[in-house]
Amino acid sequence: MFRGTYTAIVTPFRDGALDETAFTQLVEWQVESGISGIVAVGTTGESPTLDHEEHTRVIELTVQTARGRCKVIGGTGSNSTAEAISLTREAESVGADALLHVAPYYNKPTQEGLFRHFKAIAASTRLPIILYSIPGRCVIEIGVETVARLARECPNIVSIKESGGSVDRVSQLRAALPPEFTILSGDDSLTLAFMAVGAEGVISTSSNIIPREMVRMVQAFAESRVAEARELHARYYPLFRDLFIEANPGPIKNALSLAGRINADIRLPLCEMTPANAAKLLVTLRNLNLVK
Predict the structure, then answer these.
(1) Which terminus of the chain has a smaller tally of CB atoms within 10 A, N or C?
(2) CA dihedral for 149, 182, 158, 8, sign (positive or negative)
(3) Measuring CA to CA, which residue among 214, 220, 216, 212 is closest to residue 202?
(4) Strand partners, 14
(5) What would you report as the CA-atom Rg of the chain, rounded to the nearest whole angstrom?
(6) What is the maximal distance between C-alpha atoms in the chain?
(7) Contacts 24+ apart (CB under 8 A), 54-59
């Protein structure tokens, strides 16, 4: 169901508030660039610092701007099952096509707890769900057998965003899951490696600023134009790397600001990039002709 390139879109702010004009312009550019879908209010969208009203509003704006031209996936995960269900119902009410649910963070549930958490969320909605395993942020991963169990018992859990940094784990997931259950890379720099062993696309940070190029790279690999895909990967690898020299989404917001698309404002506890890292990112952006 979920294949291709999906942008984990940033949430622009101005003077501390959501910048709706900049956001809708960014969504429109993404859609025009041929993106498969947009993930609103994921980690890149600064979900931890949005209140519930803002959270729902960002998803609603995405739906209204996309107008059915691409899928809209609402990031509605939480380390509280009740809160995740509440956010899920709000996203469904404003027209999201699907949901992204990250592993509960900080409270470190067991695999049985994870299973019950996601099963309860799946039972609360008719929408398809993409699981999100990112142990670097959440401490725990969603175990391969837990993913397989959820796929068996919850018909609307249909995909996983895999951000564990392991090609071997993608192989394990592919072997354990039915063919229709899709795996999406959560790491731009590993997208081609993951696709080589069974992933079918990416939920990307880099596509905020290079949407057409990410679409081309993923499509080229999917269509067995491997040399073209590798060339694009090699060209943009420095960007994939430098967008994570500080905590996401600081660098990508900085890049989009330099490109004139949004204000670089970011909410505490995140803050502006250090001068040294900002200078390094600027060199990369200029080398790729993304900014002047």
Answers:
(1) C
(2) positive
(3) 214
(4) 17
(5) 18
(6) 52
(7) 54/18, 55/87, 55/90, 56/87, 56/90, 56/91, 56/94, 57/18, 58/11, 58/18, 58/23, 59/90, 59/91, 59/94, 59/96
Residues whose CB is less than 8 angstroms from the CB of residue 59 and which lie 6 or more positions away in sequence, other chains included: 40, 41, 72, 74, 90, 91, 94, 96
* C-alpha 112: how far from chain center: 25
Secondary structure of residue 110 in the 3-state scheme: coil
Catalytic site residues? 132, 161
Mean pLDDT by 10 residues, the chain (292 residues): 96 96 98 98 95 97 98 97 97 98 95 98 98 93 98 98 96 98 98 98 98 98 98 98 97 97 95 97 97 89
Sole residue written with tokens 């550019």: 29
What structural domains and CATH numbers belong to the chain? 4-222 (3.20.20.70)
- Tell me the backbone φ, ψ of residue 89, rounded to 5 degrees: -65, -35
Residues ≥6 apart with Cβ < 8 Å to 179: none
Rounded Cα–Cα distance for residues 71 and 84 (Å): 20
Long-range contacts from 181-186, C-beta under 8 angstroms, 24+ separation? 181/151, 182/1, 182/2, 182/3, 182/158, 183/159, 184/2, 184/6, 184/130, 184/159, 184/160, 185/161, 186/132, 186/133, 186/134, 186/161, 186/162
pLDDT given at position 1? 80
- Interatomic CA distance for residues 5 and 31, integer angstroms: 11
Whether this prediction's pTM lies above 0.85 is answered by yes
pLDDT at position 255, please? 97
Closest CA to 158 of 134, 125, 183: 183
